[in-house]
Amino acid sequence: MSKAEKTRQFIIEKTAPIFNKKGYSGTSLNDITEATGLTKGSIYGNFGNKDEVALAAFDYNHATLSSAIKRKMEDKAHPIDKIKVFLDVFADLQYVTNLKYGCPILNTAIEADDTHEQLRLRAANAIDKWYKNIGGIIESGQETGQIKDGVDAKEFAGAYIAIIEGGIMLTKVTGKQDGINAAVAYAKKMLKELHP
């Protein structure tokens, strides 16, 4: 990695948690310089503008989340156990590095849906990948007889994602675990329905 690439990566790593907590609008250039200890000139010497920093921060946060899921899935053989990993990771986001302020997909989607098209598209793409990941696991499990036939993979993925993200949102807004606890309990019932 060149010095410029290291500096760029340093900026992304230091600002990713701030963007996840405060969002695009709430994160100021002063927040970025305070987090990195760099001058405005150094920031803009590595990124054209705040948009570029925000997009890179989202990509970093999403990659962190994806890596946490992938690591937990590695030792799971049964497809239902693999799908449960999403539930486990999202229910404990505060323990995933840089994600203690919640799901970067949810946080970005809520803020950027009407205000920042590039961030909205990043969040939409992340959700699409999530759908495909769960759907692929279900279809593979149906082929091996480990998941019952007749389960609509896309419909299940959509409901599962909505329940998890809804639970996270309720918990963030209220400051109480009731939302995520209810989401986890219901999602576990959904997982039982996958058994043949």
TrEMBL record:
This is TetR/AcrR family transcriptional regulator. InterPro entries: Homeodomain-like_sf, HTH_TetR, Tet_transcr_reg_TetR-rel_C_sf, TetR_C. SUPFAM superfamilies: Homeodomain-like, Tetracyclin repressor-like, C-terminal domain. Keywords: DNA-binding, Transcription, Transcription regulation. It comes from the Bacteria. GO terms for molecular function: DNA binding. Residues 5-65 form the HTH tetR-type domain. Residues 28-47 bind DNA. PROSITE patterns: HTH_TETR_2 (PS50977).
